[in-house]
Amino acid sequence: MKGGYFQVFSYLTENERGGTIKRMDSDQKPTQQTPPPNTAQTATVLVVEDDAFLREIYIDTLTRGGYKVDTAVDGDEGFDKIKKGGYDLVLLDIILPKQEGLQIVRTLKEDPSWKSDTPIVFLTNLDNDGEVKQALQLGKGYLIKSQLTPADLLKEVKLYLAKG
Length: 164
What we know:
21% strand; 7 strands; 5 helices; two-stranded antiparallel sheet; alpha/beta; Rossmann fold; 2 domains; disordered N terminus; 35% helix
């Protein structure tokens, strides 16, 4: 280990749908990589997440799961992209710079010109009852990031897309 630390990257294996994740040091190569499934209609997911490491995990996981992914790194960019539309699902962090996720959805819902059936699912680090209650009132649900594996993310995205 150079510099006293090592980087860990996740690669999904052939068994990804069953939840198997292969972790390796950055100097190793994955033994297998699964191309995205060939889907007739690929859903587009917007990920609004300011943490670069988590954002990259979400991008990698969703892309390998066959989804098209767009991202926003702060609340203002997320607000603009959500308002513009064109997404089948939005994964929206609650704690963001410039504008928090809950406020983004409140503002959109107060705007009579914004009409969208796109499900918005909040991402949170905390299991805070008040925050969770607000998220459930404003969006379709919430996911606690610390309890979310890449396989779980794919399962949850699939469920939220099916619910619409």
